[in-house]
Specification:
Layout (H helix, E strand, L loop, with lengths): L6 E6 L14 H15 L4 E6 L7 H6 L4 H25 L4 E5 L8 E2 L2 H9 L3 E5 L9 H11 L4 E6 L5 E2 L11 E2 L1 E3 H6 L7 H9 L4 E5 L5 H6 L6 E4 L2 H4 L3
Parallel strand pairs: 1-2, 1-6, 2-5, 3-4, 3-5, 6-10, 9-11
Antiparallel strand pairs: 7-8, 10-11
């Protein structure tokens, strides 16, 4: 089946790489993600990835413990590099050329983020992993995903969740009455404070008319089905009127 998209940005939370572990990266889980990405790549889809670091470090937890927010956020950015490298290794083990680009200078292990170089890598059939968020404190990796997707002209952001099928009216782990939402606009998600991504990232997606597809990465068929045009999880989109702020 022909792919529904030519260029996507996959947002992977740190938890999506954790598997059943309480902490860190699960090699089997990382290998599973790599297989899914490689299969999509083999369909001719250009794939960029933004990785989080919640499996290793959460900046806000450091802040709660009394750490300076900027310091905590920089630690979180470095932790995303620790996730990008094993993902790169797993992708290359299944035969998919991959480049890691970091928004922070770690030249011994990753290229610096250069927009045109990233787009050239994609055009040459390489998967590009964006690490270190935006390179700035006070911005999440969700915002990095929204920013990078707009910069590289991705058609959609695929938000991979760990054990959650999509967007709900409340946290399904806490509220048994939480209702699954198959489709919603960026504005409504912001107004209802739904846990799709942070409000800064959602607003950036809305301004750029960037759709999101929130889905469960644990199902190894989900990513391929989305790429084939099958509706999986929750679609977050916006009208032209909303994107123009009217």
């Amino acid at each position: 089946m022909a792919a529904a998209f030519k260029r996507i940005l996959l947002k992977l939370s740190g938890e999506a790489l954790m598997g059943e572990l309480d902490y860190g990266t699960d090699p089997q889980r990382v290998a599973g993600v790599a297989r899914q990405v490689s299969a999509v790549h083999d369909q001719g889809v250009q794939v960029a990835i933004v990785v989080g670091a919640g499996n290793i470090y959460r900046g806000m937890q450091g802040v709660a413990a009394g750490m300076d927010r900027a310091t905590a956020d920089y630690m979180g950015m470095l932790a995303t590099v620790l996730n990008a490298l094993p993902l790169q290794d797993a992708l290359e083990k299944v035969g998919t050329d991959t480049r890691v680009q970091s928004a922070l200078g770690v030249s011994e292990v990753a290229e610096p983020y250069i927009r045109r170089r990233a787009m050239r890598h994609l055009e040459k059939g390489r998967v590009v992993i964006f690490a270190a968020g935006t390179g700035n404190p006070f911005f999440t990796t969700d915002t990095a995903a929204a920013l990078r997707a707009a910069e590289i002209h991705a058609e959609i952001i695929l938000m991979a969740k760990n054990g959650v099928e999509g967007v709900y009216s409340a946290d399904p782990a806490i509220d048994a009455n939480a209702e699954f939402i198959p489709e919603i606009s960026h504005m409504e998600a912001i107004e209802r404070r739904l846990r799709v991504m942070d409000s800064t990232a959602l607003a950036l997606c809305m301004e750029n008319g960037m759709p999101l597809n929130v889905f469960n990465m644990e199902d190894e068929e989900s990513l391929a089905r989305i790429i084939s045009g099958v509706r999986v999880g929750t679609l977050v989109s916006t009208s032209l009127r909303e994107s123009n702020g009217s």
